[in-house]
Write a structure and sequence with these properties.
two-stranded antiparallel ribbon, 317 residues, binds adenosine-2'-5'-diphosphate, alpha/beta
């Protein structure tokens, strides 16, 4: 285990393990491999369907004495069906049961979107609950209470725009510790990044590699493939690294936490080692040219005909 991977206690390690799309049967081993390689940060969510496997891996690593709970940073998220204040604590408690933990390091509101209790994705507009019925401020207040009862050390949000962060600030007693959003060269999120920096809100990038294994329902025809962008491949060759390392390095040097998902030992290592070389100003300029304000996760699940959620009020753009 190398020194660079050991984050000081109480900070969010800048490279974490993404677990969205980590499939049943392989997730447990991937988490064990990751921690043995040096990962100290695991990003989870109940909706990924694999928290029990992650919990089993973490427990066995702790039981074997390979790691202590306090050396790990574990994030999870409140699913959209539990935004009602009275649903927050049971949802968090279930996540803790699944992960076999007594507390989370960070608990996030997964989406600024509510669905009816018990639902994963809506199949009709009636499955969605407008924010006017369950305001985010009320869900946030319930999360604040979870810090008070020591079920999580910090709270934050995910998929929040600058506008939603500003709205939340009007009533929040605790400032969000982090906002987790999609960020990569096609969607560099400069405005959000500047705001979060000014407000001292950590920014975490999901899909930092362009999420090539995203679910079929998310894919559209002829989408650009980030890891195969000629500019990225050229820089990878120049530095003698992989295109994934170029993409992660570009984020890390902006102070953005990355949570690349991998279930492969070699790629897990590569991703953790992404900060071990330096991109030049000229390299960064070339990556910056890839900006096309393009999301892989558009939020189309929430904006079906008849829904109160529209692209405009989801992303506030
Ligand atoms: P695998 O799990 O087989 O390694 P994202 O984090 O943007 O969602 O991307 C995850 C996808 O990228 C997965 O398909 C994962 O495959 C793949 N991946 C992760 N790390 C690397 C890497 N270093 N090189 C190439 N592909 C990678």
């Amino acid at each position: 285990m190398t020194q660079k991977t050991l984050a000081p206690l109480n900070t969010m390690p800048i490279v974490g393990l993404g677990t969205f799309k980590a499939e049943a049967g392989v997730t447990r081993q991937a988490v064990i491999d990751a921690v043995k390689i040096g990962y100290r940060h695991i990003d989870c969510a109940p909706v990924y369907g694999n928290q029990a496997e992650i919990g089993s891996a973490v427990k066995s690593l702790i039981d074997e004495g390979l790691i202590q709970r306090e050396q790990l940073w574990i994030t999870s998220k409140l699913w959209n069906d539990s935004h009602l204040p009275e649903d927050v604590r049971p949802a968090l408690e279930q996540t803790l049961v699944d992960l076999q933990l007594e507390y989370l390091d960070l608990y996030l509101i997964h989406w600024p979107v509510a669905v009816k209790k018990g639902l994963f994705l809506p199949t009709s507009a009636e499955d969605l609950v407008p924010l006017s019925q369950i305001p985010l401020a009320e869900t946030w207040q319930a999360l604040e209470e979870m810090v008070g009862v020591d079920l999580c050390k910090r709270i934050g949000v995910s998929n929040f725009s600058v506008k939603k962060l500003k709205d939340l600030a009007l009533t929040a007693k605790i400032k969000p510790f982090a906002n987790q959003v999609e960020i990569h060269p096609y969607l560099p999120q400069h405005k959000l990044s500047k705001y979060c920096q000014d407000q001292e809100i950590m920014l975490t990038a999901y899909s930092p590699l362009g999420s090539p294994d995203r679910p079929e329902r998310i894919k559209v025809e002829n989408e650009p493939v980030l890891m195969q962008e000629p500019a990225v491949l050229t820089l990878a060759e120049k530095h003698g690294v992989t295109s994934a390392q170029i993409l992660l390095n570009w984020l890390i040097m902006r102070g953005i936490v990355v949570i690349p998902k991998s279930v492969n030992k070699e790629r897990l290592k590569q991703n953790l080692d992404a900060a071990t070389f330096k991109l030049t100003t000229e390299d960064v300029k070339q990556i910056d040219q890839l900006d096309r304000n393009r999301r892989y996760y558009t939020g189309a699940n929430w904006t079906m005909e008849g829904s109160s959620y529209r692209m405009e009020n989801l992303w506030d753009e």
